[in-house]
Amino acid sequence: MAKSAGFAPLNGPMQRLEQITHLVRSSRNPFTALCRALHTLTDVLGARSGAIVLADTSPKRQQEWACGDDQRQTIQMGRELVDGVEAHGEATARHTVLPGAGPGRTSEGMVLSTPLTGVQQAIGVMVFFCLKQPAVPLETALTCLNVVGTVLGCHLQTASLQERLKAQPDATGDNAAGLSASYNPDQIVGQSSRMKAVMHEIQQAANSRSTILLRGESGTGKELVARALHKLSARRQQPFVKLNCAALPETLLESELFGHEKGAFTGAVKTRRGRFELADSGTLFLDEIGDMSLAMQVKLLRVLQERNFERVGGHRPISVDVRIIAATNVDLEEAVRDRRFREDLYYRLHVVPIVLPSLRERREDIPSLVGYFLARFNAENRRSLKISSPAMDLIVEYDWPGNVRELENCVERMVVMTRRDIVAPEDVPLSMSLNPAPPAAVATAPAPPPPEARSSTLPKAVAEIERERLVEALQTSGGVQTRAALLLGITPRQLGYKLKKYRIAPKTLIG
Fold first, then answer.
1. 133 in a domain, yes or no?
2. Which structural domain range is residue 365 located in?
3. Which residues contact 269 (CB under 8 A, 6 or more apart)?
4. Residue 137: left (phi > 0), alpha (psi -120 to 50), or beta?
5. Nearest 5°: CA angle at 62, between 144 and 115?
6. Is 189 part of a structural domain of the chain?
7. Does one domain contain both 339 and 222?
8. Rounded Cα–Cα distance for residues 333 and 331 (Å)
9. How far is Cα 30 from Cα 158, in angstroms, rounded to an integer?
10. What is the DSSP string of 110-154?
11. 410, exposed or middle or buried, with CB in 10 Å at 0-12, 13-18, 19+?
């Protein structure tokens, strides 16, 4: 079994703890410290194998380490444990039976595991497999693992934070939009007057303690703005915790927000902290706040007023320092009138409202957004796709009921499905059925002829109906043939053929 490089064997687990602490502090590379601590603990426990599995799934960095025999099996045990690891977890031991050396044989063993815990965050898990019992008393082994798990977790968390700070530009300068340089302009794209106003409001409101209410249609980027507000605030080093209030039933939502005590209800096998506790000193983002039930609105209002709460099944008040950012696409004023939303909670949330414009209200930003998404999905799919001017015109003219989210999905589909190197208008997958024609355009469509004026034969009647549909589509699309073709469900080439067939001149239809 491999030994820790550069250290003479020491007697006793406590001396080994000092050794591990020393190598963690002296190592410039946090992942080198992980490997050396893993080898040392494997030796101390007399384990057959050991493994570390991190919770971070970033493909740019190694996430798993192992030593000793049966490395693949030990890593697999770590993978199974890392999904459920919690920041307040402790080292555990359990007996297990593994396949033995020969056919039909088994080996009785013990799995020891501990979470790697930082500040309010689980970084990963460390797991060891011992034949029968560890080489030191079980209680001593678990104590060592708890200490090492905390030391390594905090070390990894600190190293990750230092990397992010180094990657950020100097926060003393200003960028072209008037925001501090720590603000990431690649995330919120837009130079229109509406978006510049929103960015100015973000900058003004970020450092306050006031509750912020983000309003706007679905897909306008409310979560992105919430993250920008947190990043620009004095709480940027503290947790950013989010919760979709519409995604959970009322009973689960209460437990998610406030946590629960052990035995509070069936399945509550241990005490669990809620989102308010996890966001202490940081920011809590409550999305879809307008869909919260009236009963939960009362409980949320109490927390906003008193700044303390009790866990489900608990009796001890818990005080927290949390900055609330709420978001909704619901008309809260109408909801208050209909008694679906409490008026007192409305005024508690509506302290600093920021309204995000829909994409059709800032069409001048669409080309920049398309360019941003195109570059991103080109890189992900190893393509160099470009977009033609007619296709861009079609995208800009579309009303985008799903806003930026729909535009992002549209560009991704173009990159994946378009086989040519340049996107043509027929390659743009717009959901035209979600974008009804404006009333004025419908009103200008020609009325159908009276029954007595219609052709008596079926072929002539079909031709007249087809011609009427062509004229309606051209008038609805403002004479843009590519959009008219999409409305009719045919290709631009087929549309051109039919216009020649019926001798229709699009220019004569548009006044």
1. yes
2. 358-435
3. 262
4. beta
5. 25
6. no
7. yes
8. 6
9. 9
10. EEEEEEEE-SS-EEEEEEEEEESS-SS-HHHHHHHHHHHHHHHHH
11. buried
What is the radius of gyration, based on Cα positions, of the chain? 31
Identify the three-state secondary structure at position 272: strand
Q: pLDDT confidence of 186, banded at 50, 70, 90?
A: very low
Q: Which residues pair with 249 in a beta bridge?
A: none
Query: Which tokens belong to 335?
Result: 């909801």
Query: Can you tell me the distance from the alpha carbon of 134 to that of 112, in angstroms, rounded to the nearest whole number?
Result: 9
pTM over 0.70: no
The answer to whether residue 183 scores a pLDDT higher than 60 is no
DSSP class of 87: T
User: 435 pLDDT band (50/70/90 cuts)?
Assistant: very low
347: number of CA atoms within 13 Å, CB side?
3
**Co-location of 348 and 204 in the same domain:** yes
Query: At residue 511, what is the residue type?
Result: G
Identify the CA nearest to 359 among candidates 320, 407, 290: 407
Cα angle, residue 288 at apex, residues 283 and 291 outer, rounded to 5°: 130
Counting Cα atoms < 13 Å in the Cβ hemisphere of 69 gives 10
CA 231 to centroid of chain Cα atoms: 16
The domain that holds 448 is classified in CATH as 1.10.10.60
Tokens 């030994």 sit at which residue? 3
Nearest-CA neighbor of 245 among 261, 269, 222? 222
Q: Six-digit token pair at 280?
A: 């202490």
The token pair at 93 is 């031991």
Q: Which residue type occupies 127?
A: V
- 381 pLDDT higher than 60: yes
pLDDT, tens digit, 9 for 90 and up, residues 261-275: 888 887 777 888 999
How many angstroms separate the CA atoms of 209 and 259, rounded? Answer: 24
Give yes or no for a contact between 369 and 407, defined as CB atoms under 8 angstroms apart: yes
Closest CA to 431 of 401, 455, 475: 401
Say which residues have a Cβ less than 8 Å from residue 445's Cβ, sequence separation at least 6: 471, 472, 475, 476
Handedness of CA 132, 137, 142, 145 (dihedral sign): negative
Backbone angles phi and psi of 174, in degrees to 5? -120, 145
Q: Are residue 472 and residue 425 in the same domain, yes or no?
A: no
Residue 1 lies in a domain: no
Instruction: Identify whether 7 is part of a domain.
Output: no
Note the pLDDT tens digit of each residue in 438-489: 443 333 444 455 555 554 566 677 777 888 888 888 888 777 787 787 777 7
